[in-house]
Amino acid sequence: MNEPLPPGRPITGSEPGEQKTRGRQSLTVFLLCALLVLGAAWVVLRHRTASASKSDALSARPGAGPVPVVAGMVAQRDFPIYLDGLGTVQAFNTVTVHVRVDGQLQKVVFAEGQDVHAGDVLAQIDPAPFQTQVEQNAAKKAQDEAQLAHARVELKRDTELLASKVLSQADYDAQNALVNELAAAVKADQAAIDNAKVQLAYTTVVAPIDGRAGIRLVDAGNIVHANDANGIVVITQLRPISLVFTLPEQDLGEIQARLTAGEPLSVFAMDRDNNKTVSEGKLAVVDNQIDTTTGTIRLKATFPNDNLRLWPGQFVNARLVLTTRKDGIVVPAQVIQRGPEGAYAFVIDDDLSAQVRPVKVARIDQEQALIDDGLRPGERVVVDGQYKLQPGSQVKLSGSTSPNQTNRNGPAGKAAEAKEGP
Questions:
Q1: Are 303 and 269 in contact (CB under 8 A)?
Q2: SS3 53
Q3: Which domains does the chain have, with CATH numbers?
Q4: Which residues, listed in sequence order, are joined to residue 60 by a DSSP beta bridge?
């Protein structure tokens, strides 16, 4: 017979301990499956990566198939040597136009931003008070001239009386002194008239230099004074224009040597990216002292600026052409590679195999490299695709480039064009 269950105990299919054990077993199985899947995926990925690396290595081996590269030719041409510095454009001349007499500004003649010439009328001050002063001084001179004429008549009469012993010497001397005094007064009156006319002329404000008028600083109707700080307008001379830039003091010796030899040094104003020539000028001044705080020397170049592409206050890159290497060996800058033993380049032989050639680089500028040793004009070199090459690798030419085709907008490109002709 079945024994009855104790009272109060529920009837269940399993005990609580058994449920916990089964849950832990399910979680363990799930984790093991996940680890197996991840391991299998890692093995597959590693196998594929190894296969790809092996394929790349085999493709880079000599005789494993030609490697596509971009080739270039070693050129021979003149190569300018530059000194680069940061410069600021300055107006060739700058004048703040002030009034020279006090008065009311009747009218302003110039237009803001207008090109003006020396002597052009800019503004007019009320001339009435100054014209009145001229007339007053003229009247005073006329009065003194009349008195002088009368005094001279009296002096002539006194001269005759003195000769006849009728007039004393003291009376004659007094009349002579009066004539001299009145003559001096007439001269002073003339000077006063001249001064008043000068003040009257100052009521017409004219441009002192050729240049461009800036923003008007005072409007018509205002009372202006000769000691006003701001003036009425600023005129800047834009043609020609100056560029002030700095170079390290170590470059001063070479610059002085060129100037002493009488060689004019060209200066190029470049854009912010240092790739495009904005304008070309000539070195005008080397400052008379070195800035001890920065160890630099200031220089000034003059540009014709006919196209007004340079503007006062503009920051540009200055390139001083120090000298030009005649018939230099030039390749695109991408040709030069760096290794533990220095610079080298891949040279393409006639059988289309790439050989490593150590090179000595003199200068890299404007995406072109000047070679001192290691390459000869007319040789083919690898410009792009070197990362797959090893010594002796066969190559397939997929394109070509030449240093003469690079950066025609820069000064080096302009120099090459000048030599090549139209």
A1: yes
A2: helix
A3: 67-80+326-420 (2.40.420.20), 83-92+236-324 (2.40.30.170), 99-125+205-235 (2.40.50.100), 127-202 (1.10.287.470)
A4: none
Residue 83 contacts residue 247 (beta carbons within 8 Å): yes
- Find where tokens 């003339």 sit: 190
> Please, what is the angle between helix 169-202 and helix 128-163, to 10°?
160
CB atoms inside a 10 Å sphere around CB 128: 12
Take residue 20 and report the two structure tokens written for it. 């916990």
Asked if 280 and 328 count as a contact pair (C-beta separation under 8 A), the reply is no
- The angle subtended at Cα 152 by Cα 147 and Cα 155, nearest 5°, is 125
CA distance 24 to 287: 87
- The pLDDT tens digits of the residues spanning 8-21 come to 444 444 445 555 55
Taking residue 174's Cβ as centre, other Cβ atoms within 10 Å add up to: 11
The C-alpha atoms of residue 410 and residue 333 are separated, in whole angstroms, by 15
Among 224, 196, 192, CA closest to 130 = 196
pLDDT digits (tens, 9 = 90+) for 207-222: 999 999 999 999 999 9
For the record, the structure tokens of 276 come out as 């495009």
